[in-house]
């Protein structure tokens, strides 16, 4: 197994995007699963929402660069109420990388954030990033072609998020609350720093990732030292499919490393999650992970390596061609409007959104209006607890809902 392959896959894992293998044991045989590129059958509403007794609507959103994104809407709680039509407050939930909108629906209705918000009177919208199972359409490109996958989180910040906000605003006529987890926080911060999101009311960032240089796993240290510039060429892969046979086989190679505990991979990469339910993990494993672009994974690995939040690094010569300068432009987080209400919740056991990196993010927001920034530190939480933890409602979501209602 090549040195570059090891480091690239390590960067994938250390970003917390591989907890789908958390219950794999080294001795087990892992059967490859192939993602079908044909249009999906039932949508997310039918799979995870309506059978719980909630109304749910499916929408498609077209981005400026032609990608067609799936979006779901839960317009009211199971008992209705909380306002009707345009009087309800819209909130957008945006997942991280290698997962999709199912992220917000994994637990029971009284433990899943999407349902909790709907029952609290919000008009809930769920985003699905390009390339995931419900968002594989394009105006002119086919997902089976490399051209479809020529994007990173730069494009998610520049195109996907603005298109999603514009669509919701046209439907509701109201400014929008936003909740992001992991990469969902990264794209929001990048987009906000460039003034690309309009009609925004407030933001909640769960396990925020912006600076990634303090990951505290052995794999993280290796990934941070990786030379990632040639990985796309080396792989010859445009779509990064975590269920593809080559990567699954590599798990066995990884598990042969004595420093890797394959009996608890989730803790190895996300930190020690305190509050996960085994049945929730089973639901997760039946639905995730999802594809992303290899270019996106390289960009994330560059963020780990370089310790700055910047655009995709094509290398000095090609950066001149793309950006007119030898280094990629940096996202300046001090450009985020100082009067924007922001709620940040992070965990003391999170190996991905490490406490030191979150403190760097908070330092970049030090001039933010004091009454507009609310920070919550949860000592026992790791990365996955914020979206899958059975105690998240009492510890995080109640505070988040109260924050939104105060704005």
UniProtKB/TrEMBL annotation:
Q: Name one GO molecular function term.
A: hydrolase activity, acting on ester bonds
Database matches in InterPro entries: AB_hydrolase_1, AB_hydrolase_fold, AB_hydrolase_lipase, Lipase_euk
Q: Which Gene3D superfamilies match?
A: alpha/beta hydrolase (3.40.50.1820)
Active site: residue positions = 182, 350, 383
Q: Does the keyword Repressor apply?
A: no
Q: Which residues form the AB hydrolase-1 domain?
A: 113-387
Keyword entries, A-Z: Glycoprotein, Hydrolase, Lipid degradation, Lipid metabolism, Signal
Q: Which GO terms describe its biological process?
A: lipid catabolic process
User: Which superkingdom, per the lineage?
Assistant: Eukaryota
Pfam families per the UniProt record, alphabetical? Abhydro_lipase, Abhydrolase_1
**What region holds the Partial AB-hydrolase lipase domain?**
50-107
Signal peptide boundaries? 1-18
Family per UniProt? Belongs to the AB hydrolase superfamily. Lipase family.
Q: What is the recorded name of this protein?
A: Lipase
